[in-house]
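Readers of this paper often ask what the protein records in our data store actually look like. The remainder of this section carries one protein's record, kept here as part of the documentation.

:::
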Amino acid sequence: MRHLGFVSLFALMIWVSHSCLAGCQKPAVVNLGAIFTFDSVIGRAAKPAMEAAISDINATPTILNGTHLNLFMADANCNVFLGSTEAFQVIEKEVVAIIGPQSSSIAHMISEIANGLHVPLVSYAATDPTLSALQFPFFVRTVQSDANQMIAMADLVHFYGWKEVIGIYVDDDYGRNGISALNDELDRRLTKAFYKLPLPVHFTQNDIISLLSQSKLLGPRVYVVHVNPDPQLRIFAIAEKLQMMTSNYVWLATDWLSATIDSFAPMNRTALHVLEGVVGLRQHIPESNQKKDFMSRWRKMQQKGFATTELNTYGLCAYDTVWAVAHSIDKFINDGNNLTFSSADKLNDTKTAEMHLEKLKVFDGGAILLKELLHTNFSGLTGQVHFSSDLNVVTSGYDVINIDKMALHIVGYWSGGFSVSPPETLQGTQNSHSEIDQKLHSITWPGGKTETPRGWVIADDERPLRIGVPYRTSFVDFVTELHHSHKIVGYCIDVFTEALKLVPYDVPYKFELFGDGRSNPNYGQLVKMVADDVFDAAVGDITIVKNRTKIVDFSQPYITTGLIIVAPIRNSKSSAWVFLKPFTVDMWCMTAAAFLIIAVVIWILEHRVNDAFRGPPRRQLVTMFMFSFSTLFKTFRKDTLAP
């Protein structure tokens, strides 16, 4: 019995040892998925960047030592349906995380799948602000949200004092939700008007022409363009043909434009001539040796054919995204967790035999891996990579760029406020965001001017000003209708048209006759019609009188009134007593009586104590009246001396 017990104990120890080894052994391979559109501005930069990251991770012994990282890429083709089907195929390979997608619309769909299967979805390009942590707890973003970008854009509009804005956007989740966030921010800054003009997802040249022509009927000339990256820059090319890249216009663009420009090869930068004067935002990435080394490596990749485009900010974010996931997997494994998958009971119970949904499995450690991912903190190509509580990467702000003479210039930075110094140089200092302290370098606007455009004109479709003019029979040189031709002429009309030339924008107007031309109209009634908004203004020989000024405003008079004051002259001869004429006899008598009373009062008060008021009666009378008379010209007071 003792021997049998020893054998049983030995067998139990061997079983526990094998179980521990099996549970603690690092996996040989870990699978990752990546879903994005290969043939796109973002995809052409992200694909080689992610491949380079996988290569670096597998070659680095300090991370995932002994475990090989596989990346399965799937092409979404800019289609929500195809992107969703590709997501199912990638998940069947038992991936522990999915990188992407770049499209916000596809991200909404795949996020629902990620929630159900507990697979973290880490996107480097989906910027839709409605992809919230509350609705999609497994969606993590390594790029700045459009909620942050639209704050910067609204600050830019407010910085230059524009109150009316037109937003051009693509009509999908990315465009609608981004422009909605901008609308909210502009409302907080008391913007007067914001017109939203949508474009179809796959818009054509005719769509752009129709939309821009429609926008010209509106008053604002400040445009914010929020569309997907477009290498052809079609909106600006057509705007130039429609004479909308002149000094009257302001064109602002979100970071899609900077991503597009950064992807251009140096020899293709001549296409930037259509962007003259455009101002945009670009995600700020601090300069570092790590970034410079990768840029040098990217040029070698281009020479070998591994990269077909220039590197943009989304490519850098894609590289750091792979590293962020790798760091979280390394921590997950080192903590003794297992990469295991289990069948989803709800999918097994569903009658979907032909769809083979039973191949989809739930990642058991998805919640733990997500937690490790959110605690990730490392120095990457885009700077320090770490996450906030809302599952978004902690941002470093935006560059404010300006295209001038076919070159891109950084005119400032935004990180809660505008500055000409990079945000990283302001760390540790007191960065004031007051309007007084904010500043940007000089900007070249459309048309080549550096003066800030006004940003609005009188809209073409607005009702023209109704100008009432008197139709009279006399004094027709002032204003009249020329031979029943509906043409209004006259001196007052000439003054009005010359004054309009001093206004720096077009003012539509039309003249409307008041009167029948057979008798002179009632000018008081004409003025009242202006006050009652029947006419917007009136032009003519209208006399400025008191009762009229109470209901309307008049311009400065430009015609001599001819009014004079007639006063009779009774005696034109001069006299030495002319100074007595301003007052009547009664007034002079009252004045003399006042002097007499003053003299008596002074004598009564001073006679007993003042020797000057004593002596013979004649002397006292002279003193009294001289003192009283001198009060007209002299103030009697004693000098006050300080002790």
About this structure: DSSP finds 18 helices and 22 strands in the chain. The CA atoms of residues 253 and 280 lie 5 Å apart. The mean pLDDT is 86.
